[in-house]
């Protein structure tokens, strides 16, 4: 893949995210909040909005729930945990072969994809500030909530990702012929498992997609998040299992944060 094509893909990805955000804002301006009607005099008032003041405590509660979640696994959870576990196991057993035989080790190719992943993840990292700013300027509790919760999901993902890196201490693909050995103390805090970029992208994307759940928005957010994960592998920065776990955990964290803390419902105006 030459540099021109990479830049073209980057432009398309960034444009896609910007279009999705624009559609979110446009949708908000048209329908959020729905106009109050005089035919329902006793309609319930909106719930109080999410605030920055309560976010630090919410993050602490999130961490407690996330790290203790294995103790609360129920039978219904195995419907997705078993397939995920099998997929991760398969990925780990084929990581070395994929990275040494399938993914190009050409430096220019790897560098281009690494740059691409950095560009594609940027809108997700900027989303909390952008959405909170839009909410502040437009006096939109919905947009403010999106900004706060996407930021909360990013912080939660970062803490979990760093904790997992310290636990698994996996070597990156550029070490020891892409053997991907775990529990190597020489790795320190720069381990390969899981992928930081993937967790951040998918956690932010999950909140954005849950807050603005149109098909186009979901395709845009999750499509770009997928691009982040793929380019981390093509850039020889991570193994496929690293991005698989990072993507899955990031999505679950983002979805959990939204489900646990969001307060705005269109139904309360009906």
Can I get a quick summary?
The chain is built from eight helices and no strands. The protein has 270 residues and is mostly helical.
Account of the protein in words:
The protein has 270 residues and is mainly α. The chain has one domain: Vanadium-containing Chloroperoxidase, domain 1, CATH 1.20.144. Helices cover 69% and strands 0% of the residues. It is built from 8 helices and no strands. Helix 3 packs antiparallel against helix 8 (240-261), helix 4 packs parallel to helix 6 and helix 6 (196-211) runs antiparallel to helix 7. It is globular.
CATH architecture classification name: Up-down Bundle
Strand-pairing-aware structural class: mainly alpha
Mean pLDDT: 84
Task: Tell me the Rg in angstroms.
Answer: 20 Å
User: Largest sheet, described in full?
Assistant: none
Number of strands: 0
Span between termini: 52 Å
Number of domains: 1
What percentage of amino acids are in beta strands? under 5%
- The CATH topology comes to Vanadium-containing Chloroperoxidase, domain 1
CATH class: Mainly Alpha
Shape: globular
Structure annotation, total helices = 8
How much helical structure, as a percent, in the residues? 55-70%
Regions with little confidence, pLDDT below 50 for 5+ residues? 1-47, 266-270
The arrangement of helices and strands along the chain is HHHHHHHH
């Amino acid at each position: 893949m030459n540099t021109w094509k990479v830049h073209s893909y980057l432009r398309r990805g960034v444009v896609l995210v910007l279009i999705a955000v624009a559609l979110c804002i446009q949708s908000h301006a048209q329908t959020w909040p729905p106009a109050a009607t005089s035919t329902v005099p006793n309609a319930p008032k909106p719930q109080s909005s999410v605030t920055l003041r309560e976010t630090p405590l919410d993050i602490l509660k999130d961490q407690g729930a996330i790290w203790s979640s294995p103790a609360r696994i129920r039978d219904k959870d195995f419907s997705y945990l078993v397939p995920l576990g099998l997929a991760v196991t398969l990925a780990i057993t084929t990581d070395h072969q994929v990275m040494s035989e399938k993914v190009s080790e050409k430096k220019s190719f790897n560098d281009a994809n690494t740059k691409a992943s950095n560009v594609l993840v940027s809108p997700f990292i900027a989303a909390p500030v952008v959405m909170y700013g839009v909410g502040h300027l437009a006096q939109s509790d919905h947009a403010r909530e999106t900004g706060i919760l996407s930021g909360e999901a990013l912080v939660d993902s970062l803490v979990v990702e760093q904790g997992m890196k310290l636990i698994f201490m996996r070597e990156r693909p550029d070490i020891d012929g892409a053997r991907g050995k775990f529990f190597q103390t020489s790795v320190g805090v720069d381990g390969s498992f899981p992928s930081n970029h993937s967790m951040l992208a998918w956690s932010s994307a999950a909140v954005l997609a849950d807050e603005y759940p149109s098909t186009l928005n979901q395709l845009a957010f999750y499509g770009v998040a997928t691009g982040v994960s793929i380019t981390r592998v093509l850039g020889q920065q991570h193994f496929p299992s690293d991005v698989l776990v990072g993507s899955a955990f990031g999505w679950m964290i983002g979805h959990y944060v939204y489900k646990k803390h969001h307060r705005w419902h269109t139904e309360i105006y009906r």
